[in-house]
Amino acid sequence: MKQFFLFASIELVSGLLLTNVYNSMIGVTSWGTGIPKSIETSR
Q1: Could you give the CA distance from residue 8 to residue 14 in angstroms, rounded to a whole number?
Q2: 38 near 32, Cβ under 8 Å?
Q3: The whole model's pTM is what?
Q4: What single DSSP character describes residue 30?
Q5: What is the pLDDT of residue 43?
Q6: 3-state DSSP call for residue 43?
Q7: Are 30 and 38 a contacting pair, CB within 8 Å?
Q8: 41: which residues sit within 8 A by CB, 6+ positions away?
Q9: What is the pLDDT of residue 22?
Q10: Largest Cα–Cα distance in the chain?
């Protein structure tokens, strides 16, 4: 049972980490260009 919770927590943390990495690399570059239109797009 302990092993299940260990693997579940590792999976959750890695998912959150990969989401943050993706947003930092891909999302920010598309939102940071063309400021007036990028704000409308992100909404």
Answers
A1: 10
A2: yes
A3: 0.57
A4: H
A5: 67
A6: coil
A7: yes
A8: 30, 31
A9: 87
A10: 51
